[in-house]
Design goal:
Number of strands: 15
Distance between the termini: 30 Å
Bound molecules: 2-amino-4-trifluoromethylsulfanyl-butyric acid, cobalt (II) ion
Low-confidence stretches: none
CATH topology: Creatine Amidinohydrolase
Structural class: alpha+beta
Mean pLDDT: 98
Largest sheet: 4 strands, antiparallel
Order of helices and strands: HHEEEEEHHEEEEEEEEEE
Strand content: 25-35%
CATH class: Alpha Beta
Number of helices: 4
Radius of gyration: 17 Å
């Protein structure tokens, strides 16, 4: 069942989203060779607490941290670690902020120092693919229009789209209907309506879209060990089009 949010509920989610966006802005300034994803995780958790919010991911189905930190071939759900990031790495930081019971979800990939041309293009195309999807997130379209726009753009640029993890409705719980795949045919799936709130969060890979999960039960990697990146926003569908609640 897809829940419809009132304008008042959407504005509460936007407050959570603004806080999350501020954390990403701060992280962008912290990312450099030598910092650890553990330090970034501690920063994010502390920032949320200082602003009256809580990290919704911590304890979610037993996930142990406030953030997911996914380096290089890790697609998503990587654990923050006390290992230093190195020049040339790419890292995705993903988190869900709970502010007064309403949630916002956003992941962002970062370059650590100077990265390869391939990594740079992957970051650029993955971010752009998110905005290609957002453009289609208008009342009257179908979810498949979002999915298709992302896949068509990503594949035309030579990258693959992960199938095993998808976007989702969100509100007072992290995962609601609708499911939002980042691949598939246009003009299929649920009709997009005013008041829906969902994430779009494409994960693009340099090589195969196939995944494998580490022994920790969480860390998802590319099966071929090649790079993966992800950008995610939470958006609300309004009469004026998609409103990005996690806009930085
Ligand atoms: N932010 C992720 C999402 O898009 C959730 C990560 S799973 C968790 O759904 F267990 F870490 F929360
Ligand atoms: Co999400």
């Amino acid at each position: 069942m897809i829940t419809i949010k009132t304008p008042a509920e959407i504005s509460r989610m936007q407050e959570a989203g603004k806080l999350l966006a501020e954390i990403h802005r701060q992280i962008a300034g912290l990312i450099a060779p030598g910092i650890t994803t553990h330090e970034i995780d501690q920063f994010a958790e502390k920032f949320m607490k200082q602003h009256g919010a809580t990290p919704e991911q911590k304890g979610y189905k037993g996930y142990p941290y406030a953030t997911c930190a996914s380096v290089n071939d890790v697609i998503c759900h990587g654990f923050p670690k006390k290992e230093k990031l190195k020049e040339g790495d790419i890292v995705t930081i993903d988190m869900v902020v709970n502010l007064n019971g309403w949630l916002a979800d956003s992941a962002w990939s970062y370059a650590v120092g100077q990265v390869s041309e391939e990594a740079d293009k992957l970051l650029r195309v993955t971010k752009e693919s998110l905005y290609k999807g957002i453009e289609q997130a208008v009342a009257g379209n179908r979810i498949g229009d979002v999915s298709h726009a992302i896949q068509a753009y990503a594949e035309a640029e030579g990258f693959s789209v992960v199938r095993d993890f998808i976007g989702h409705g969100i509100g007072q719980v992290m995962h609601e209907d609708p499911q939002v795949p980042h691949y598939g045919p246009p003009n299929k799936g649920p009709r997009i309506k005013e008041g829906m709130v969902f994430t779009i969060e494409p994960m693009l890979n340099v090589g195969t879209y196939l995944t494998k999960i580490d022994a920790d039960g969480w860390t998802a990697r590319t099966r071929d060990g090649k790079l993966s990146a992800q950008y995610e926003h939470t958006l609300a569908i309004t009469a004026d089009g998609p409103l990005i609640l996690t806009a930085q």
